[in-house]
Each structure stands twice: as C-alpha cells, then as structure tokens.
C-alpha cells in the first residue's frame, strides 16, 4: 500500500507530467470579474426599467406628472338675423270742425251807495313806562396796585362790590361784563363775594395783562339768580395808563 500513498501535491505533479498542463484554479481576479459582471447586469437592468417607465418609484429624478391639456371651447359664429323692416302706415288726420262759442248776456249788479262818510278817530297811544332798575353804579379808574401790589403795570380789569339799600353786602349777585376791547369781543361773568379783597361782596374780572384804552365800548350789568337784570348797562372806559388800569365799580341798591 506504500506505493499508492500520495498527497495532493504529488497528484498535481503527476498530472502535470502526464498531461503537460497545470491544473486550473480560481484566484481573486476571477472572483472580482464575476462580481463586476453581476453588478453591470444589475445596473443595466435598473436603467432599462427607468427607460421603459420614467415615472417608476425607482427613479430618483422622475419628471413631473403631465397635466392634461384643457380643451378650449371653439367659438361658433351665429349670423345675425335682420329684423323685419319697418313699414310706415299712414295715419289719417281728423278733420277739425269749428263750433261757434255761445254768447252771454251781462246780468246787472247792485251797487251799494253810502249815505254818510265814516270818520275814524285813532285812539291815543298809551305810554308804557320803563321800569327803573333797583341798583345804580359808581365807576372810577384807580391803580390796580391798591388791590394787587405784585402786578404793577401788567394788569387790566374790573372789580368792585354790591350792597343793598342799608349798605350791607349782597353775595351771589351775578356780575357780567360785555362789549368790545381793541377789536376783541369781551363776555365775562362772575358773582359777588368771590373776591373779598374789595370787600365782603367783592367781585373781579380780568380784561388783560396790559393797560389798554377804550371809549365806552364795554359795559357792566348785574343780575339776580333767575337771570333778571338788577341794573342798567353801565358803560365805562378803560385807560392805557398804569395808574388807571383798574375799573372800580360800586353797585348800590336805591329802590
């Protein structure tokens, strides 16, 4: 049995001696070639599927799904039909027959005759007496520094008091100054008793910050709480001098 004992290397050497060829073997290059061939087949199949159907999910760059074209309706031209021509129908004008107007006979009327002439004697007009106001006023121009020492010449106003017939101060009497001062409308109102620097029933209305001259374009008047006047319109003038920039008005009940 020793003559038949041999290993694989001895077999290969014996094969080469008898055939003169080397036993074939598979090396790494052959394996790589097979893998490359299979990869080529797979890639070719992949691109063939994409070529056949570009919209397949295997295509990462598949085109947008085409939108079906909208069919635009075709205009159909309908020829216009001419209306039936209008034919004028002659109208027969009626014949006007004049009718004579009736004649009226004047009816006599009675004319009244006056036997005497009326004489109208107008009644004598009755004089209506104007009621006299219960208050009168005394007006004078003084220096405002007597009441407001701090103002010096930078002030112009009206102030005063209201007293009854006994000389007692009257509080709550409405005092109003109206008119025009250097082209400006003046309408100021206060009540007696609010400016007690003039007295217990004192009042004051400021006309401006500088002495301004005027000639009886302003007036002052007092009213009761119901709005009824208690005095006439007392007109007064203002002065442009610093020592006459306060119009002092003293109302006194005389009736």
List keywords for this structure.
Immunoglobulin-like; alpha+beta; 8 strands; 15% helix
Question: How would you characterize the overall build of this protein?
Answer:
With about 260 residues, this protein is an alpha+beta fold. Among the domains are: about 5-50; about 135-255, Carboxypeptidase-like, regulatory domain (Immunoglobulin-like). About 15% of the residues lie in helices and about 25% in strands. A four-stranded mixed beta sheet has the order 1-8-2-5, with no helix packed on it. It has a four-stranded antiparallel beta sheet with strand order 4-3-6-7, with no helix packed on it. A hairpin with a 2-residue loop joins strand 3 and strand 4. The longest helix has 25 residues, at about 30-50. The radius of gyration is 66 Å and the shape is elongated.
